[in-house]
Design a protein that fits this description.
The protein is α/β, with parallel strands linked by helices and 309 residues long. A hairpin with a 2-residue loop joins strand 4 and strand 5. It binds adenosine-5'-diphosphate (ADP) and magnesium ion. Magnesium ion binds next to helix 1.
Length: 309
């Protein structure tokens, strides 16, 4: 377990920002930390980054306890906060060299490493550009470049895609995929679930300081799905099709929507031959039978409303 929290609790005065949090993340995972604003994501990440002490409970990073062995943790992590400071009159290359120096990386090695991270984050062509003149997406990539200089094992990224346009989001996602392939353990927070779906190996959903779900993306969707919704298209009489299908066992509800007969099935199933059979028996032609995608946004909403669990 590269990250582990036990009963991790953080209070700001009366406010309980994190309540007995148990978080387990294995080495090499890309963990999506999801929750609405104010859920406690930043608080958790700042504790893991050794910038905040827990009120009680424990957080371990690479086996070291935050607050007691923070000095051992810092070289092993790269923390990208949810804000970017101002660096007037500093060009990209200088910015990175400045931070490399802070990590005691010197001489030829420094040049080499700065060159490598510029390449990796696709910023080589901006090396002589002023930091403050970069677009938001480039600044975000530069923040990531900065925390890669000391080759950390764990990356802690607090909402790295927020406020970015779609293209910049994709670029960040591709970069994170690359870092994941390189073997880094990544913790990335977001208040929107879908943008993490094809990136993360597991997710945790946080609500008001409590973890309400931890597992794979598929598992989250499965739990939220609750039965199956199927769309059936026919060029024949749709109302007749609806009536025929409504009579089938396992069909809880049948209605017409957007040119489809929409069936809610009681159980989870991927075998729709019973629907096709009923259609054929009643001489109704089939243009399409498809399962409704339960998208991650829906899954997230259902999970956070406490409908599940
Ligand atoms: N320094 C602080 N002092 C007081 N309350 C804080 C402080 N930082 C965060 N909070 C409160 O703690 C809760 C969790 O905040 P935060 O960890 O920033 O959530 P998130 O990152 O998920 O939006 C919120 O209610 C927030 O207002
Ligand atoms: Mg936050």
């Amino acid at each position: 377990m590269i990250i582990q929290t036990i009963n991790l609790t953080k209070r700001y005065g009366e406010l309980i920002a994190l309540n007995n949090l148990h978080l387990n993340i294995e080495e090499g995972e890309c963990f999506g930390y999801i929750g609405p604003n104010g859920a406690g994501k930043t608080t958790t990440i700042r504790i893991l980054a050794t910038l905040l002490r827990p009120t009680w409970g424990e957080a371990r990073v690479c086996g070291h306890v935050v607050g007691y062995e923070s000095r051992k943790i810092r070289p092993l992590i790269g923390y990208v906060p949810d804000f970017f400071g101002a660096y007037e009159d500093m060009v990209v290359q200088e910015y990175l060299e400045f931070f490399a120096a802070a990590y005691n990386i010197t001489g030829k090695k420094r040049q080499q490493i700065v060159g490598d991270v510029l390449e990796l984050t696709d910023l080589t062509y901006k090396r002589d550009g002023l930091v403050d003149s970069l677009s938001r997406g480039m600044k975000q990539r530069l923040s990531i470049a900065r925390v890669l200089l000391h080759d950390p094992r764990v990356l802690l990224l607090d909402e790295p895609a927020s406020g970015l346009d779609p293209r910049a989001r994709i670029e960040i996602r591709e970069l994170l995929k690359e870092l994941h392939r390189m073997g880094k353990t990544i913790i990335i927070s977001s208040h929107i679930l879908p943008e993490l779906a094809d990136l993360c190996t597991s997710i945790g959903i946080l609500e008001r300081g409590e973890m309400i779900f931890q597992g794979s993306v598929t598992e989250a969707v499965r739990r939220a799905r609750m039965g199956t919704v199927v769309h059936v298209a026919t060029p024949d009489d749709q109302e007749r099709a609806r009536q025929v299908l409504a009579e089938l066992p396992n069909v809880e509800n049948a209605m017409l929507r957007n040119g489809f007969v929409v069936l809610s099935l009681q159980n989870e199933t991927t075998d729709f031959s019973f629907i096709a059979n009923a259609m054929i028996r009643n001489e109704l032609r089939i243009h399409e039978i498809k399962q409704e995608e339960v998208n991650l946004e829906t899954a997230f909403m259902r999970l956070t409303k406490g409908i599940v669990q």
